[in-house]
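User: These chains co-purify. Model them together.
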Amino acid sequence: MSPRKNKIKDFLSALPKNIFSGFVVSLIALPLGLGLAMASEAPPIAGIIAAVVGGIVVSIFGGSHVTIAGPGNGLVGVLLVAITTLGIESAYAAIICSGLLILLLGFFRMGKLADFFPSSAIQGMLAAIGLIILGKQFHIMFAHKIKREATLDYLYEIPFTINDALHYQNKGLIFAALAGVISLAIMMFYAKIRNKYLQLIPAPMWIVILSIGFSYYFEFIVHEVNPIAKEYMISGIPSIQTIIADMHLPDFSSVGSFPFWSSVLAITLIASIESLLSIKAVDKLDPEKRRSNVNRDLKALGLATMGSGFLGGLNVVTVIARSSVNVNNGASNRSSNFFHATFLVLFIVLFSTQLTRIPLPALMAILVYTGYKLASPNAIKKIFSIGKEQLIIFFVTLIITLKIGLITGIVAGVITTLLIHIVINKTVSLFVRNVMKPNVLMYQEEGQDNYYVSVKHFCSFLNYYKLKDKLDAVPEDKDVIVDFSLCSFVDHTVMENMYNFQELFKKRDGHFDVIGLDMHDTDSKHPFALRRLLPVPNIIKNNLTRRQTSMESLAEDYDLNYKSEKQKSIGFLNHFLFFNTKTVNHIYNQLSYKNNVINLFDIEFSEGEFIAKEVIRSTMLHIKLDCPIPEFTLDREGFLEKVYSFAGFKDIPIQNHSDFSNRFYLLGDNEEAITAFFDDDLVHFFESNPYYHIESNGESLLIFGKERLASIKEIKALFDFGKRLKDVVEH
Amino acid sequence: MSLQPFKSIGIGAAFSPNLKANLHEAARLSLFFKSKLFLIHVGEVSDDKVKMLKIFLKPFEKDNLNYEVVYKSGNPVDVILSTTEEKNIDLLILGAVQRERFLKYYVGSIARKITRKAKCSVLLLIKPSVERVACEHIVVNGLKDPKTEQTIKAAFYVAKQLEANKITIVEEIKQEQVSVKVDDDKSLRKANIIKERIRLRENSRIKDIIEHIPEKYTKNIVTKLQPIFGKQGYSIGHYAQISRADLLVMNAPRKMTFWDRLFPHDIEHILTELPTDVLILQ
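Assistant: Joint model of the two components:
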C-alpha cells in the first residue's frame, strides 16, 4: 500500500476518537466562549463565533496537532479596553487589524516572539489579566452589577459586594447570587471528586446543564416563573438566522487614531504570546510526540482572527485549558478542533433558545474561577520560592498592568528584569558588550551521536532565542549536553526553559543534561535559578504521618525498603501509555522489594492544564520483568469503556474466554502477540483476582487500583497481587 | 610547497613587565622554527637597553640563537610594520592584554591595528611565560577558502616543530547553507539530512587536503575533523576555548573595510576575545 493511502486510512481510523474529543471540548467551549465574550463586553455570541471560525480555519491551515483555537482568557483585559474606548464596531476593525499583524508575524517567522519576555514578567502580566477578569466578574457573580473607572476599584469593592449580597432582600437577587456561588463551588470541587461518570462532562457544562435543568424545573414542575432576576439571565443569544442577518460590518473610521493602534498592538501582543505559550505547553502533552509548526499556526490564527472579526467574533488564539481536555480525551489530530467547531454550530442551531435559561452569575463564576487560577496564590508562592527578585519583577508587572495598561506593564517588567540582572551582576558591560555576540556553540563530535552545546558570557531572556534556535534543531530523541561553564550569568527564564526542554526530551526518549553550573552555586551571584534546576532532595522530614509510620513498620515486617522522601527520577514511568498525556510530579513513600524489582509508591501526577488541571495522588505498583512481553492495557469492562470503544478504541477479544473478554477491557496495538500472551494461566489468574488497572510497556508492568492513595490494607493486597502476577507472567 | 614558512620572526620589545616572558617565548619559537629573531624596539638606543636584552636572551646563547635588535623611533604601529617589511619578517609576535578580574584576553589597540595591516603572519600570545608550556592541541580552520590548504599545511608544520600531538580541523559551516528552516518534525528531518550531507562533503574536502601533505608531517599526529554549524570566526574561537586548545591557527582575513569592523566577523571576533594563542597565517 502506498504511504499516502495509509495516511488516509490512519486518519479515518482515528476519526471517531477525534469526533468524541471534539465533542467533549465543545462542552467547555460553549460556556467559556459565552462568558469570555460577555466579560469583554462583547455580545455573548462573539465568543462562539471566534471558536467556530478558529476551529475551522486553524484545523485546516494550522501547523499544530492537538491544539484547540478559540476566544482566549488572556485577551479579556485588552478586548475590554478596546471595546469600551473604541466601541464595538471599531473594536472589530481592531481585531481584524491584529489578525493581519499575527498573520504577518507568522510570515516573518516570529514564532520566537514569546521567548523575548522574561518569564516572571509574563507571569505578572497573566496574573494581572486574571485579576482584571476576577475583579469585574466577581460582582456579577454576586448579582451586584457595578461600573467603575479603574480596574483596581473593582477589586477594592469585592468585600462590599459580599456584604451587600448577605443582606439582599430581593428574592430574584438572592437566587441569582446563589447560582453564582454554587457554580463557583462546582468549578472548585469538581477536580476533587474522582468519579468517572461525573468526569465525563466537564465542570462548565455541568453548570450549564444544572442551570437549564433548574429553569425547566420551575417552568414545568413547579409552574412558576424562574426565581432568578430577569436582568441576571443571559440575553441576546440570537438564533442562527439573526446572526447571519445581523452581521454588522466593522467600522474602520477610527483607523487613524492613536487609541485604535495601541489597542491593535496590545491585542496582537497578548494574542500571540498566549497562543505561543499554549502551543508550547500542549506540545509537551501530545501523545504522538510531534512538534508543532509554530509559524504556520500563527498564520492560521491570524487568518482566523481576521475572519472572526469580519463575522463579528473575537480574536482567535490557541487555548491551553481546552487543548489539554482535547488531548486527555484521545484527540490525535487537528480534526478534533474542526469537530469542536462543528458541535458548537450544532449547539447554537439547535439550542440557542435554551442558552437564555443560563443565569449570568453562573456563567461568570466560571470566569471568576479562570481569573483566580491565573492569579492564584500558588503561582505567587512558586515565584517566591525561585527568588525574591522574581517577586519584584512579578509585582512591578502586575501593578503597572493594573494601573496603566498591558503594554506598559510588560515593558516595565522587561526593564525591571534588566535592571535587576545588572544589579545582581554589578556590571553593565557584561550585557552591553556581549548581547550581540553569537554566544552559543553547538556541535556533534565526530562519530558520536550526542550534541554538545556551550554557552558563553551570559544567557538571559535577552539572548535566549539564540540558544533556543540551536536546541530546536535537535531531534528530541537524541542526547544533548548544555554546558554553562563559560557563562557567568544564567537567568531564571533560561533555567525554566532548560527544565522544559529536559521534560520534553525525557518524554521522547532523549536525554538533556545541563552542566557547568556547579561553580555558580558558590558564586552567590545568581543563586535563584540554580536551585530550581538541581533540586536538592528535600530535607528529611522527621514527622512522618500515621500512614507513613505504618508503611515503615510494614517494610520492617516484610523485609522491604522504605523511603518516604519525594523522588523526581521517574524516567521509568515514561513509557507507560497512561502517562502519555499526564505530567508526573514526583513519587514518594516508596516500598521496594528485591533490588527494586517490585516497587510500590505513592505518586502525584497532573492531568490537563490551567482551569482543567487536576492534581491526582494515587498508589501504584511497578514490576520489572525479566523477559519482554507485548504492550497492553487491561482494565475492567464498564460503561465508559463501551463509550470509548464506540469512539474507536478497540477491545481485543481472547478466544475461548468469553467471560474474561466480557469482564475485562484489553487494549493494545499488537493484537496477535497479545492474544498469544494471554494464555489460560494468565486469564485464569485475572479472572480469579480483584480488578486492577494493569499496563505493560514491554519490559515492565504498572498496576494500580483507584485514582487515590491506597490504605495500608490495600497496599498489602496490591503487593501480594503484584508478586503473584509476576510469577504467573514469568512462567 | 615551502615547508619552512617562518625564516625570520619579529617581536616588538617594549620595556614592560612582560618583556622577559615575551622574549623567552619568541626565542624558543625561533629555535623551534630555526629562524632568525628580530627584536624591534620603538625608541632610541641606549646602553641599558642593550644590556638588558642581552641578559634576557643569555639562556638561549648556548643554542646559537640568531638574533638582531632594531632600534627605531616613531609611531609604534608604523615602526613595527615598516621594519617587518624591511627585514622580510615572516612571523610577527604580539602580546595580548588581559581584562582585569576576568580570565579574558583581548588584543590591545596597537596590536590590533598591526594585526589588521600586517602583510606577514601574526602570532598573538595570551600568556607568555618564561618556562615553556607545552603545546599539545592545535585547532585550525578548514574554511572553504583558497588560503585554507596552505593554512592546514602550515598548522601541521607547526605541530611537528612544536611537538604537538593533536590537530583538530574545524569546518565552520554557515547556517544559511542549510536551506531548510526547522519548523516541525518533517522539516527537522530534512534539515538534518542536509546537514549530514554537508558534513560529509566538508570532511571529504579536508581529507583531500590532508592527503596532499607529506607524510613526514602528518604521522604521529592525531587528526580530528569537526564540522560546526555556526558563525564564522566566532564558533572556532569558542570551540578552541572549550576544547582547551593551545594554539588556534587561522587564515588571514581578506581585505578589511570599514563595514567589517562595524559588523565584526571572522578574525575580528577573535581579536576581541582571544580564546587561546592565535596564529594568523598570511
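The first helix of chain A runs from residue 3 to 39.
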